[in-house]
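B., you asked whether I could sanity-check this one before it goes into the benchmark set. Here's the sequence:
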Amino acid sequence: MIPRFISGNSFKDDRGELIFNNSIDLSQIKRFYTIRNKDVFFKRGWQGHEIEKRWYTAISGVFEINLILIDNWINPSNDLHRITYKLTDTSLDFLYIPPGYVTSIQSLNNNAKLLIMSDYKLHEIKDEYRFPIEYF
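And here's what the prediction gave me:
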């Protein structure tokens, strides 16, 4: 599977603004949490899952999300192809990350907040892999 960008939208009228995403299926979601990086220079990564699926959306600010499909979870090549996405809080776009990818997350403005959803509960499976940020 490949990552997928699920576009949201917004609507404004005299009452205010509605930001929505009518295209995302949340039936697989078992938990969610938010991340706020300490500053715009910090890159959170590389972390990923061989089995677990994730969905990301920016609920405040702008984020750059880098993804790499891992070829070997024990000893991955360090020259793998990187895919970059940008998420903003303006239209409730979601980035679906299928199993097999690691991510690095960087906020592009201070106090940005990212919502992350998962199809497994915490500690339901042992499926977390971490690599140093300079590995890839």
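One thing to flag: The chain has a mean pLDDT of 97. Otherwise nothing jumped out at me.
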